[in-house]
Amino acid sequence: MSSLRRANLRTRLTLLYASLLAVGLLLYAVGVSAFFLRNLREELDSSLHRDVETVEGALLAAPDGTLQISSREGEAEEGELEHGYFLEVWSQQGSLIYHSAQLRNQVLGLPPGKGAGFSRQDPHSIRLPSGMRLRTISRLHHMAVGNPVVVRLAVSEEPLWREFWEMVTVLGFGLPLTVIAVALTGYLVAARALKPVDAMAQHAAQITAEQLNERLQIENPNDELGQLGVAFNATLARLERSFDQLRKFTADASHELRTPLTAIQSVGEVSLQMHGDVRYYRNTIGSMLEETNRLAALVDNLLTMARADAGRMQLQRAQVNLLDLATETVKFLEVLAEERHQAIRIDGTGELTVAADRTVLRQALVNVVHNAVKYSPDGGEVRVRIRETESDAIVEVQDNGPGIPMEHRDRIFERFYRVDKSRTRAAGGAGLGLSIAAWAVSMHGGRIEVVCEPGPGSTFRIRLPKILPAVAPAGYSNS
Amino acid sequence: MRILLVEDEIKVGSALSEGLEAQGYEITWAQTGEDGFFHASSNSYDLLLLDIMLPGRDGLEILNALRKQGLKAPVLLLTAKDAIEDRVLGLDMGADDYLVKPFAFAELSARIRALLRRNKPEPTDVLLIASLEIDPVRRTVSREGRRLDLTAREFELLEYLARNHGRVVSRQMLARDVWQETGRATPLDNVIDVHVARLRRKMDEPFEQKLLHTVRGVGFTLSEDDA
After folding, report:
1. CA dihedral over B153, B158, B159, B164, signed as positive or negative
2. Domains and CATH numbers, chain A
3. Which residues of B touch A283 (CB under 8 A)?
4. What is the pLDDT of residues A164-190, one digit of tens each?
5. Does domain B2-116 bear CATH number 3.40.50.2300?
6. How far apart are CA B161 and CA B203, in angstroms?
7. Nearest CA in chain A to B196
8. Of B82, B194, B218, the CB nearest to A303
9. Cα–Cα distance, B177 to B173 (Å, whole number)
10. B127-222, which class in CATH?
11. Complex ipTM, two decimals?
């Protein structure tokens, strides 16, 4: 069984079909043979019935009380009897009156019982001591004169069995041949049918991380193999996308890490060459520490995202009042807005709650509001609005900054993505805030959209489903 | 005060022992887990500083073994793994606090002070720094006899700085102890800077002597001396 399991699919299929076919054919052959044998016997029996009547007509009682077979017909019968017919005539008392010479000393069964006539009338098969198989029939015959006698006629079954065995032989040879022929054909057909699988396997084996843009050729997308191919291609596409993301992410992350490292290195090297006072060196070291802090914060963010990607974040859900959360967020960030003479306004319903992880959701809201404050001009206004639709709870954060150009809109949630490339890190951060916000919202089964009406200002709309999604997304990706 | 430091990184270990010695602690520095275990079980220390990632025997194992031996001294874990599981594991094993690397030295020394004076309530006396007077009970502040009008947050910030008077306080310490925020992935640094700037405007700008100083790259300090 284990070797069968190890054999390839084609062989297994062929073996399975061949054995099913063999069993079926065998059952069929047995049935046909049995039916055939029965037919042959019935034919023999009906001819026996006919013949026994003929024999009865030819029986004559000789004047001396012995039995004779009428001359003309009798001769004919004699001739026929030599060709496998055997005749016995018994008296009712059980004494043998006549029997064919060919029988020699053998009898066709027991003498009929005294007074009780004879035991069987129906045709039945017997076997002579010489080994010959016979079909025999008995009749009680009333002679024109004298006592009735028992006439017993037998015919050899040998031709019948010969015919039967011939047929069985034909079947016996034909059956394995058929099975072998079908199995071979089946094997070839299966080979042909599975050829695309081989091709796909070979092709798939050649696809490596470096050439994920390759796709399988699909001949017929509707058959089973085609569906498999389509599914495989879809997997490849996803894989390619995540590889691309990973590559981009690695490039971006190393850029972000390299920038502060370069700063530390150059500041350190330069100050070693200078001969400054304590104040100068303190300043130098301070500047290096600033970069170190930046690095630490960046590593922190990367860790958070790595953990999120690995799906290791567990949400601690509780009912969160969105207005409370928004108020808390705004209070937290208010000083930043006040510094720039901006106003933050909140309006909306105070009853709206969602089942959410407060810390995670707060992070999202803080990042989005902070983003709005950052990009609104001095003296501008940020509006936070809480409302609901039938299915979603919505938090909208609207700024009156410059708005986001169309071509950036899809990408602003990507990690390290900055609309304004020239913006310094001090002003723009590492470009992770919105990405983290998008992740935090998606953890809750929601999403963030950017709505930009023509003209200045943009609105970030956080949509959270009011009803808990059955399964929270395991990981998070930018796609 | 005797502190046992178990740290395999030479640079980190020597910087920490130097820095702590400068603050008046007596430091024993063990560079391997076995060494640290030996010192901890043969001598008595007021506090253990234990790195989790050590070659051979890791910090958690050592901590577990020491607690089983009946070690009473507080233990502060240093960990590079910023994973909740590690922290929980560490605290379950009998650690008293942990710090995630990289950490600011100022924060380390603040944690050490906190562990060493544990169970002693914060004094409720009026804090006096130069002409600045802070009453933690009535939550009032005055300078040169003039009452200063501070928001609740500004007061908490000032009180924290005053309690760490003369020492540098990092933004991370403020985030954790004043804002009760964990994680650096928030715009909190900006928020802290703005609050500090406002506090300075109220308590320093109108006066001749400046008390609240920024230590570049590290944080802030409340001190009579120029930083």
Report:
1. positive
2. 2-163 (3.30.450), 224-309 (1.10.287.130), 318-465 (3.30.565.10)
3. 216
4. 999 899 988 888 898 999 889 988 888
5. yes
6. 13
7. A335
8. B82
9. 6
10. mainly alpha
11. 0.74
